[in-house]
Design brief:
- This protein is an alpha/beta fold.
- Strands 1, 2, 3, 4, 5, 6, 7, 8 and 9 form a 9-stranded mixed beta sheet that branches.
- Helix 5 links the parallel strand 1 and strand 2.
- The longest helix has 50 residues.
- It starts with a helix and ends with a strand.
Length: 437
């Protein structure tokens, strides 16, 4: 066969191969599009199922606890005020916080309902008060000034105690207050001062970063530091004082007004909190049960920490929001060692839901796809509206009846559970934005 006869055949084969190649590419493209649409549809369906079925899924947790804990009569009486002397606390029901109301007993200076503070008038100074904030000692007390002042006589007079530092209490509204304002309550451990400062600076930058994104919500933030233990009081006082001094310094563009405050847990708060948490600590029966469930680490998580007292301190910061921060629209409660994606608040505030959470990494070991079930949600990853926080009454008020060490350890879940029971709307952001440490 001559070459002239083969040329048309080769051309036909090339055209055929080209058509088949284009067809294969189109088929691959269609498969990718279908898979992508299917994946998006599954994610949307998962979010809808998580929102619509959250209350039913959450209610299953009660059944699970009842099945796992298997309370016997002697153990259930340990939670009764009549045998509270077993824990070294008087059998006085007034010392045990009821679950229906906010825990009231404390001697804080800011426990009364406070009217909203007047707006700060514009001034050439960036510091919203004239007097320099009184310094504090290492134990958190107000230190007397070594120089004479107009208040020296009243300070030395025991009948006129020194004024509290300006950063102690419910706080002040920012000068550039937006319609949306987030109060970030940071639970501070006394050994995590550097981590706390880093978290403040990182979260403070989020509203500024959101301004450069088209269509992003405008919002402001401030911070309330809560010392979970008495050793943390000088740490939170020192951090707040440093932040206020930085704001007072001219030429440093950090914040338009002081934005770091300290929840008032001074006085005998921690002694009272320890008394109130005594019936919720681990008994020997609890330790044996937890040892069988998960070993030494499980016992440590539930028995080595006074979780009930920690959440009592957290509720002081929550109470400041409910009673003295009318400009706060949202609340984020987190620990000082947690960290966030720079757009965490941007994405969570884009939803109008009462409770918004995101996917997160748990202790750097596993990625958790967020849901409203137990084990799929963490305290620092939930942005809550002020409305739902007011409905729940705080963390201690959200504990179920008959709560023990396991329930107080999981108090963040029970806070969410109570919000769902009260009709809170929910949303899940399917992005990895929170890192729980």
């Amino acid at each position: 066969m001559s070459p002239r006869t083969l040329q048309p055949a080769k051309a036909w084969v090339r055209r055929r191969a080209t058509v088949m190649a284009y067809g294969a590419l189109m088929l691959v493209a269609m498969v990718l599009v279908i898979r992508h649409d299917g994946w998006v549809g599954k994610e949307q369906a998962r979010s809808r199922r998580g929102s619509l079925g959250a209350r039913a899924l959450a209610s299953q947790k009660k059944v699970r606890y009842e099945r796992l804990r298997d309370h016997s009569a002697p153990r259930s009486t340990l939670r009764d005020a009549s045998t509270a002397s077993t824990f070294g606390v008087a059998a006085d029901p007034s010392q045990l916080p009821p679950h229906e109301v906010f825990p009231a007993p404390c001697d804080c200076r800011h426990c009364d309902v406070l009217p909203p503070p007047p707006p700060v008038p514009p001034s050439s100074s960036v510091f919203p008060f004239h007097a320099f904030p009184p310094p504090t000692t290492r134990d958190g007390r107000i230190a007397s000034s070594p120089t004479a002042s107009s208040t020296a006589s009243s300070t030395s007079n025991p009948t006129h105690p020194p004024s509290p530092p300006p950063w102690l209490g419910v706080g002040l509204p920012p000068r550039d207050l937006q319609d949306t304002h987030v109060r970030i309550i940071i639970r501070v451990h006394h050994l995590q001062e550097a981590a706390t400062r880093s978290l403040i600076w990182a979260m403070r930058a989020q509203p500024e970063a959101a301004k450069f994104q088209a269509g992003a919500p405008k919002f402001t933030v401030d911070f309330a530091l809560v010392a979970t233990e008495a050793q943390g009081l000088p740490v939170v006082q020192r951090i707040a004082q440093d932040e206020w001094e930085r704001t007072r310094s001219r030429g440093i563009n950090i914040a338009p007004s002081p934005d770091v405050f300290v929840a008032d847990t001074t006085g005998s708060f921690y002694a009272l909190a320890s008394n109130r948490s005594a019936p919720y600590r681990c008994s020997e029966a609890d330790k044996a049960e937890y040892q069988n469930k998960g070993g030494e680490n499980y016992v440590r998580l539930h028995c080595a920490y006074d979780n009930h007292a920690y959440y009592q301190a957290t509720d002081v910061g929550v109470l400041d929001v409910l009673r003295g921060c009318p400009w706060c629209t949202h609340v984020l409660v987190t620990n000082s060692d947690n960290s966030y994606h720079p757009d965490f608040l941007l994405h969570t505030l884009s939803s109008d839901a009462d409770l918004v959470t995101t996917d997160f990494v748990d202790h750097g070991e596993r990625m958790v796809t967020a849901d409203w079930r137990w084990g799929k949600v963490d305290l620092g990853g939930v942005l809550a509206s002020r409305k739902v926080v007011m409905k729940t009454g705080g963390f201690i008020a959200s504990l179920p009846p008959g709560a023990g060490p396991q329930e107080t350890h999981d108090n963040d879940y029970w806070f969410v559970h109570r919000g769902l029971d009260l009709g809170a709307t929910t949303a899940v952001v399917g992005k990895l934005l929170f890192f729980h440490n």
